[in-house]
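Let us walk through a complete example step by step. Step one is to write down the protein sequence. Step two is to encode the small molecule, 2-oxoglutaric acid, as a SMILES string so that its atoms and bonds are unambiguous. Step three, shown after the inputs, is the structure prediction itself.
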Amino acid sequence: MVGFMGADLQASLLDAFEDPALGSLGGMQRTELSRGAWIDVLPGWLTGADQVYERLAADVPWQEERRQMYDRMVDVPRLLCFYGENEDLPLPILDEARDRLSAYYAEELGEQFRTAGLCFYRDGRDSVAWHGDRIGRGNREDTMVAILSVGEPRVLALRPRPGNTSGPVSSTIRHPLGHGDLIVMGGSCQRTWEHAIPKASGRIGPRISIQFRPAGVR
Ligand SMILES: O=C(O)CCC(=O)C(=O)O
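Step three: the predicted structure of the complex.
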């Protein structure tokens, strides 16, 4: 039994024996942000998420990374593993999730989700700073990044990039992402908005995030 269940222990005991399964995407709720950015949200898309968390935590070849910060190298505060376009994903349910998302967004996205980036947040000290996924085409084109979250609930924060304050929603959004929840950032979100997983205080258990992206989006 994993340690992130807290008050939901009873539900978790049942869930531990449940095979992973994906629900309908029909209940997805869209929120328009500003300048053509939006998020779609579907809590509890994945059931049997305990098994998914446990298998990914144990089987994925997690890597530590270091990056330059000013004049020194620092540890990136999370573990990572990237699955490229033609690589097998570590669990069949993740292939199914990617294919279901590709089918659901086929018309609007015009291409398929191709890659999967996995991140392991070991506790509340692990985080990712404000950024947009702008290394690739997300810097100049509308695209989508779909995130499936398992493990400890963590906040995904979104805020407009400086100078982008018009539109229906323009201040910082703190969106809680729980065990089995799905969020999709779409439209101009990667270039007109930024997102982050802020550090969290208290007894915060581990979380794994699975991000599906089209080819050429990082
Ligand atoms: O952990 C998450 O859900 C977000 C990850 C993320 O923003 C990224 O890796 O670019």
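Step four is interpretation. DSSP finds five helices and 15 strands in the chain.
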